[in-house]
What we know:
Largest sheet: 6 strands, mixed
Strand order of the largest sheet: 3-2-1-4-5-6
Distance between the termini: 76 Å
Strand content: 5-15%
Number of domains: 2
Number of helices: 11
Shape: elongated
Amino acid sequence: MRRRTLNSRKLWVNDIAYAESCMDEQVPGPRPGRQPLTARRLLAEQLQHHREKSGWSLSSLANKAHYDRSDLHKMELGQKLGPEHLVAKLDGLYGTGNTLTLLWRLAKEEHVRDTYRAYMELEASATVLHQYATSTVPGLLQTESYARTLVNTWPIWSQEEVETELTKRMARQERLGEDGALHYRAILDEACFRRVPRTPQTWRDQLTHLAEMADRPNVTLQVLPFASGLHELAGANLSLLWQADGANAAYQESSHTATVVADAKEVANLRLSYDALRDSALTPSESRTYIQRAVEEHTPCTLPDRT
């Protein structure tokens, strides 16, 4: 097999296509009972294929990789992905370059997208939504220009996917209309106001939009200042959703991970953490003042006309 290296993120998409072509070359034709084709399934099949090709048992591989046998077995069944560093080690043991690692990354992204779609369904039917945003303005509050700037930082999305995502994101905001279809609260970490777009106008428009949204009767915004210190929810965005029938769920995400939480006890614990965070944030009134001050700070001064 040819060897390739991932020299930059710009090569990611091409390398994944290469990895999939390798799968076509190495995996025999359709087998009875074969599961639907996904990156996770391809990775699992390749892990098993290369181990058997090498003539190693799972126990033997566990000794060579210094990893738990049962976890390796679950990876070959597609039940878990395992850590990236382990897959990179298996690439080295099997002499597969970085093909397995690339498939792992694709499977990881695939999982995040599937989980995101599940969240979108929950959001579409929710009557109450509470969110905590760690470093960027949440999608429901973004202007199109801010959203475009953010989405364009994602290296593996095509321009068509970017435009589709932007259209959907703007449409989602209709639920925050004045008809009160969705009762929405967002706690915005101060980092959301410190990591800003490079285009000043994009940021001014975003701040102005936040100020306008904060005045809507069904929208409550609170700013969590750095001075509030460390807290349990640092490091990941959180959404708490309530449905009309009383059912609730939670959604946690970071840049490359996403999880929908349905267990009632886990959701309740996350809600308690959210409530504690809300108590540490500025009040809604103080937050409106904070946002308005930010708008003024980023609005150029206009000198009076002395003519």
